[in-house]
Design brief:
With 538 residues, this protein is α+β, with helices and mostly antiparallel strands. It has helices spanning 2-8, 56-65, 112-123, 133-137, 143-147, 177-180, 191-197, 251-259, 274-280, 308-316, 320-328, 352-355, 358-371, 390-407, 418-426, 445-448, 465-475, 480-497; strands spanning 13-15, 36-41, 70-72, 78-80, 83-88, 93-98, 158-162, 165-169, 213-219, 223-228, 242-247, 285-286, 289-298, 333-334, 381-387, 410-416, 432-438, 500-507, 510-511, 516-517, 534-535. β15, α14 and β16 form a beta-alpha-beta unit.
């Protein structure tokens, strides 16, 4: 995986200039005369500004509109992006050598100064980026102080010795740092455009990007249409002439449009239809493991979920095997840890949830709830927030039923569209909230850092100094065995304090038309660039 491979090459110059992410149809293959592809996304993107994205929905579109220092190939390994090579001797200072033929969609050259400007913009608190924490997690020198308003953005550990050399200084060794630069929050933006248009810079006609495609049309909640960027350095390997993203949060609606040939790739499919789809459209149903965890976060700032006994009781009472195997039911595995089993360098140690039967966990949950002062005469009432999706709704109904039957908990289900859900989530307007995380890189810290106090992804607002110290210690650990031990200790704290309840481990479940080629279905982080795809004659 990217992180581990880079660690082995830390003192070497890494150069693979001949590799590109573009489409490579085999000789003699017959292509469709119409190279248009329609991709389903689950929600309308909150923003097309790389520093304003909040998750997968934004990432999928911005990967086509922008390009970072590195990309990923079909298996998740690093390949050059704007950088053709990079080097480090100590995993703290990295030098990236940029390609001279990288261009913005208006023809301007992409320079190291663009990255300096963009990364400072990410960390600058005045920009209110929900991904500012990523700069600190990546180890960029002074990022923490800048984010906290204690230092100016100009002190961030990034500089441009010349137009095509980017120097990055970290405050700790991060062997896998280069892999982090594939994250959308570290994509460059065009300074003149941002400064000219302000908040309107991402609108159609204004947006200038450096990716393989450019924004052609946008109808909110209906579609985003992209056309090839003729100035992109690898434009000759772009086969598609149009990419359309369709936001649909109802899986059954997306499936119906897929079956009607209105969509070529779905983001998911209705899990109860899994077995039938395998019979009806064999060869079009894909469910490989994905680097992600579906979980519930508890509001640790207000009663009743501020009580650890209540949180543990609620977590214990969730029958994860039923959720994974029956409610979801398309190859997902129960999650007993926040970190998925497939994460590189992670060897989970069985915890309390795995060491006891569900009957024993249910009995312990009742004891904990009684100890917290709740029972038949004083039942708990909770609101459970989730974003609109049939799958989310089915899980919420199942969990609410488990809590009611086992613990007498009254659950009010709160269903909101993506933007409202994000607002409620960020302002703490919930007792329990549906959440998920797909790794930004293939290493346990991408998950475990979520629950550190300073992380904007810490939805539960969990604050445990011991946990934070442990993750800080792990970030500086170079001994693989000791690092693995630190990560398991972190999982132990999560299990004991229960700020979240992991529910199941993701699969990359989607439908792909047989005429679509080049989708990297085995990429564990589900990083997919439209430029790698093409349409066969059909």
């Amino acid at each position: 995986m990217p992180g581990s491979k880079l660690a082995l090459c830390a003192s070497l110059i890494i150069a693979c200039c001949g590799i590109a992410r573009g489409a490579t149809p085999p000789p003699g293959v017959q292509l469709s005369p119409v190279q248009h592809i329609v991709r389903h996304i689950k929600d309308e993107p909150a923003s097309l500004d790389p520093i304003k994205g909040v998750g997968l929905t934004e990432a999928e579109v911005t990967r086509d509109l922008f390009e970072g220092l590195v990309n990923q190939d079909a298996d998740g390994h690093l390949i050059p992006g704007v950088a053709v090579s990079w080097q480090t001797n100590d995993n703290r200072t990295f030098i990236f050598h940029l390609r001279h033929d990288a261009r913005w969609s208006n023809g301007d050259p992409v320079t190291a100064g663009d990255f300096v400007y963009s990364w400072r913009r990410l960390a600058d608190p005045k920009n209110l980026s929900p991904f500012a924490w990523f700069a600190q997690l990546a180890g960029l020198a002074n990022a923490g102080d800048i984010i906290a308003g204690k230092a100016p953005a100009e002190r961030l550990g990034v500089s441009a010795p010349d137009d095509y050399t980017l120097k990055v200084e970290l405050d700790k060794p991060v062997p896998y740092f280069a892999s982090l630069t594939a994250n959308f929050s570290l994509f460059p933006v065009h300074r003149a455009t941002v400064e000219k248009y302000g908040n309107d810079w991402t609108k159609v006609g204004n947006l200038v990007g450096n990716g393989a495609f450019q924004l052609q049309q946008r109808v909110v909640n209906e579609k985003l249409v992209l056309a090839p960027n003729p100035y992109y350095w690898d434009h000759r390997h772009t086969v598609l002439t149009q990419v359309t993203f369709i936001p649909i949060n109802q899986e059954s609606s997306a499936l119906n449009r897929y079956l009607a040939n209105d969509i070529d790739i779905t983001e998911s499919f209705p899990k109860p239809r899994y077995q039938q789809l395998l019979k009806d459209i064999p060869g079009q149903v894909y469910t490989p493991p994905q680097l992600g965890t579906y979980y519930y976060a508890f509001n640790t700032r207000r009663a009743p979920t501020s009580d650890v006994r209540v949180r543990k009781a609620l977590s214990y009472a969730i029958d994860r095997r039923i959720i994974a195997e029956k409610v979801v039911g398309s190859g997902e595995k129960p999650a007993f840890h926040l970190t998925p089993d497939v994460t590189a360098g992670y060897k989970p140690v069985p915890n309390y949830l795995q060491q006891h039967s569900q009957e024993e966990l249910d009995a312990e949950a009742k004891v904990l709830m009684t100890a917290a002062g709740y029972g038949p005469d004083k039942p708990i009432t909770l609101n459970l927030l989730y974003n609109t999706s049939e799958g989310n709704e089915k899980i919420a109904i199942a969990v609410a039923s488990m809590w009611k039957k086992k613990l007498g908990v009254n659950v009010k289900l709160v269903n909101q569209e993506w933007k409202s859900y994000i607002d409620s989530r960020n302002t703490g307007n919930f007792d329990v909230v549906r959440a998920s995380w797909v790794g930004d890189y293939n290493e346990p810290s991408t998950f475990l850092s979520l629950l550190t106090a300073a992380h904007s992804g810490n939805i539960a607002k969990f604050n445990d100094p011991q946990y934070d110290r442990l993750l800080e210690q792990a970030s500086r650990q170079t001994n693989a065995k000791l690092l693995a031990a630190d990560y398991n200790k972190a999982e132990d704290i999560i299990a004991e304090q229960a700020p979240i309840a992991p529910i199941y481990q993701y699969t990359n479940g989607r439908l792909i038309k047989p005429w679509v080629q080049g989708y990297p279905i085995n990429n564990p982080e589900d990083v997919a660039y439209s430029q790698s795809m093409y349409i066969l004659k059909h």
